[in-house]
Design a protein that fits this description.
The structure is a homodimer. The first copy, chain A, is of the alpha/beta class. The first copy, chain A, is built from eleven helices and 14 strands.
């Protein structure tokens, strides 16, 4: 019997693949199985020691897996999978439908309390590390303002919106924080800024041959919610250029707290991410919190948790003594 | 009986004064008393509802104070005050002698376990928030390097060293991170950098009238440990300029983790501080952790803790429900 933390993955998309890679960097963990809704034999997963199984057989692995990492989407998968798996396993997920987090927390909490398991929900970078930094910065500097900027990064939702425009064959959209807004925030003047005053939108679009590009540009720039309120730039490129230069999934952003203490001293706390691969980074956060869920459960702390409830020491494979000596 | 958390302060230096200001920003806290080793009647503290008392009377306040914030120094005060006050109160301190943290933790832990109190040690920004970010970033990106840069900021130790040089009447030293080193780190190449390759030292010195400035400059630049291994700049100024332009205590710095995931994707996590007032900011961190110590103790979690052991939610006066709804 190994002492490794035995991990399972539900879902084999970008996030699931990133999770496989992240587990390989953790000497205290072992990936046991990947569960999919597709026919397992049709997945080409080149991991000799990992089983690939249909999601319906997960229950049989109740005693063989310590933590299940749920890599499905918030809209379609997690509302069902979250509470279902919390009845069987300690779980981690990246539920990110902000408005529905209280409701999701409640159903997962009930399931996990009943099973005696520990489920950490809404893990990743936003929600996740950004949330943590918003909370800590506001607690330390109660008088002040918090600003979240996203990007430069590829937005999946906005890219999908572009691809639905008539005459568009393919395209991507990058959310780009506006430098002047960041500088203003860092100067300590605490400006009021709308999302559109903090970000611009840069699109790379492949048009149908012969289609009126001016019309496409107009249709994108005036699209309500997605683009109308933003400084939007539309660039037309070839299908080859799209594939060559825009198939990575970079992202990142900033959380900046600008506060005042004493008479009139400006204090700036900033947390930022600059990520070549958004799904691989999110997966790395999930895996660190999987370690925490396993440990919290060993201590009998059952129920749903968020990043706010997890002491940072639980994320590290090192002992508390080593952490105090080496990292404090 | 108010429901406010009743706080005491030990020590009335820069940190103690910053703590008074920080408590004023917390609607859930009340400053009860300041304890000093000096004659209390000689301190001019303009806080009508706060008692100013000799440190020897602290024990009488055992049932009147929920958390005691220790604002003394690591070298001279905390080795005795830490365990002494942990026997009587929940405590917070900013013990920062890195090499002796394990030993200090152990004596405070024993005292706090015996009294059933909760003591969070080594709170502030380094050790403290920087440590937390080193730990989290390394846990999330196990393959990579962590870099800590300090500054731009006034270093008390180096300023003291300058003032001990013959012919020097007054002076300050700023530690300045080297931009090229920061850029190199952020590019993801993971360079090996000594402290001297990451920082330069900029001194502003008031010389004795008629004293040989070239000799002073030479004495500073060749001083072992403090300056010899650094790119050091010495500027001579007048006593008036020193007072006018260099009597604030700014500081800050960066913790940058440069990691790799998957095939070869660079992932950068950065945490930075830009502080007009180092002691006021440190005090603000102490006060947020005082709230955490009070709550952890209410839950029966006695003994010594560090920032690694405290779930972030404990720092906020808001309820867990509100935090999930508003900040996650």
């Amino acid at each position: 019997m190994s002492n490794l933390i035995k991990v399972g993955i539900v879902g084999y998309g970008n996030l699931g693949r990133g999770t496989i890679e992240a587990i390989k960097q953790c000497p205290d963990m072992e990936l046991v199985a990947i569960f999919t809704r597709r026919a397992p034999e049709n997945l080409s997963i080149n991991e000799p020691n990992v089983e690939v199984l249909h999601i319906s057989s997960a229950e049989e692995y109740k005693d063989k897996i310590d933590v299940m990492i749920l890599c499905g989407g918030s809209a379609t998968d997690l509302p069902d999978q979250g509470p279902y798996f919390a009845r069987l396993f300690n779980t981690i997920d990246s539920y990110d439908t902000h408005a529905k987090i209280p409701e999701y927390f409640s159903v997962v909490n009930q399931a996990a309390k009943e099973s005696g398991k520990t489920s950490i929900i809404s893990v990743g970078w936003d929600p996740g590390l950004f949330s943590l930094n918003r909370l800590m910065a506001e607690s330390i500097l109660p008088t002040g303002e918090t600003y979240t900027f996203w990007g430069k990064g590829l937005s999946q939702g906005h890219s999908d919106a572009i691809r639905r425009v008539e005459g568009v064959v393919g395209g991507v959209q990058y959310t780009v924080p506006i430098d002047e807004a960041i500088e203003k925030v860092k100067s300590g003047v605490n400006p009021e800024l709308s999302t559109g005053e903090k970000h611009r939108r840069v699109c790379y679009v492949v048009a149908e041959e012969g289609y009126d590009q001016a019309k496409i540009e107009q249709d994108i720039k005036t699209m309500p919610n997605y683009f109308a309120d933003y400084d939007t730039e539309v660039n037309f490129i070839t299908a080859e250029e799209l594939k060559e230069n825009h198939s990575k999934l970079p992202h990142g952003g900033f959380v900046i707290r600008s506060g005042k203490t004493g008479e009139d001293n400006n204090q700036i706390i900033e947390f930022s991410l600059n990520l070549d691969s958004n799904p691989e980074f999110t997966a790395s956060v999930l895996v660190a919190y999987a370690r925490a869920a396993y440990r919290l459960n060993k201590e009998g702390q059952a129920g749903a948790k968020t990043v706010f409830d997890v002491a940072p020491g639980y994320l590290s494979p090192k002992s508390a003594e080593d952490l105090r000596r080496d990292l404090l």
